[in-house]
Specification:
Layout: H1 2-30, E1 68-70, E2 79-86, E3 92-97, H2 102-108, E4 121-127, E5 130-136, H3 144-148, E6 156-159, H4 164-194
Parallel strand pairs: 1-3, 2-6
Antiparallel strand pairs: 2-3, 4-5, 4-6
Length: 195
């Protein structure tokens, strides 16, 4: 049993190493893209082979504490690591199928919570020595840009949390405490005055 798992992992690794040549060939074609079409290209960008996970490898990965999630395997698709942070159902590091768009990626991360600010979803991508940021408005279910934007290994998707609800509860509680203290002081003064 243990030998078959090791053999399976070894075969998966060899397949991944052999497929790396395909990614390297298409990387030079995509390197000239800049501006709004960046992230919207249809061919495969350059990937770091050490960041990828084959679907066959996820079956032997043990469950551990922390926020690491493996999406269900899609036949023939390698899994890539993408960070989803903020007001989402399951924030953390997600291994999602390659070529996943932003909207599907957010759904795989549990979708936005009720406190999510959806008109300013940020995707940060490292490009050489600099960080590129893209902003998306998905408040009405997304737009063409969000559906066409392909996530890449190492991307960070951040959905802000609207603090209005938490602040409202805090200030309501604080007002209740102040009212109780003031009424206690007034009651104490009234009792002392009547004695």
């Amino acid at each position: 049993m243990k030998c078959s798992k090791i053999t399976s992992l070894l075969l998966s690794y060899l397949l991944l190493v052999q497929s790396s040549g395909v990614f390297a060939e298409t990387a030079s074609e995509n390197s000239e893209l800049t501006g709004p079409e960046k992230g919207l290209e249809k061919s495969n960008p350059e990937y770091n082979i050490r960041e990828l996970v084959l679907p066959s490898e996820t079956g032997v990965i043990g469950k551990s504490s922390g926020s690491i999630y493996y999406s269900p395997a899609v036949k023939g698709k390698v899994l890539i690591p993408v960070h989803f942070w903020g007001a989402l159902g399951k924030s953390g590091l997600h291994f999602i199928p390659i070529e996943t768009n932003l909207v599907n990626g957010l759904s795989m991360a549990g979708g936005p919570s009720g406190e999510a600010v959806l008109d300013n979803v940020r995707v940060t991508r490292k490009s050489g020595d600099k960080l590129d940021e893209e902003y998306f408005d998905i408040s009405k279910g997304g737009n063409t840009k969000a559906f066409e934007y392909k996530l890449r290994p190492g991307d960070t998707v951040f959905v802000e949390k609207d603090d209005f609800q938490a602040n409202r509860a805090y200030y309501t509680g604080l007002a209740g405490v102040i009212a109780t203290v003031l009424s206690s002081i007034l009651l104490y003064r009234q009792v002392r005055k009547n004695q």
